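Continuing the series of single-chain predictions for the mutant panel. This is the parent chain; the variants come on the following pages.
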Amino acid sequence: MPNSFRFLQLDVFANRLFDGNPLAVVLGAEALDGQAMQRIARWTNLSETTFLLPPTEPQADYRVRIFTPRQELPFAGHPSVGSAYAAIEAGLIDAGKTALMQECAAGLLPVQVMGQGATRIIHVQAPPARLLEIEDALRRTLAAALQQELAPDQLIQVDNGPQWIVCNLGEAAAVRTLTPDMAALADLCTRHDAVGVSVFGREHSGDAAMAVRAFCPADGIPEDPVTGSANAAIMAWLGARGDRDGYGLNYRASQGREVGRDGIVEVARNAATNAVTIGGACVIGIRGELELPTSH
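Parent structure:
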């Protein structure tokens, strides 16, 4: 069994290193079992680490397994965007191919590739979302943890692979000045099987229509820098609400400034199918090999 694996670390949802959400990618990981993958993910201590594998479905171009430091996820946005970019850069996929199919625990997900090299933008279709109404007891608990008043129509639970509790705070200023109680959020997420809480509000200046933050303290990530699945969950909810908030079928979301990043997520919804895609740029910071001990 090999103990050396090709390894990349890249920033996702940014075209400049240090602005996006870091992702570790282990290539050719078929010799690793789930326990070994989880240990590696705990060690990298990034919000997610992915493992690229040969596909098991004939339609797929590659297969990916996605781990936080605590658990495996069926889908996550920034790992899906970054893994597609890494697969192309590592030569696992023809660099000229523009339509890919990702296989992951959530199923087969279409991927669109626009541009080449440093200008390449990856768009991944999120799994279909399931919306779950939030009971008053959870709403009150969350309001206390966020230190915000929350009306029933301001929040929803969205399952699009991971489960997100999503809150519309109305304005970007409320999002950017938020100081949540992380211990309370961690307890809340654990009890309600949510990977995290995501909040959003409208931007009135700059090149983004929305400010987003995502908190995942139960997984050891107090605030995730830039979060594809959370942004997809927000768009799924906006669509289910009949777009009464006026964001439309596509917009840009800004995330990460509160933790020293400056990520941009391109979010779109198909009017006919309601399929949601999230996309963005990537930049590689580390290329090398991961050397594992003989017994891992």
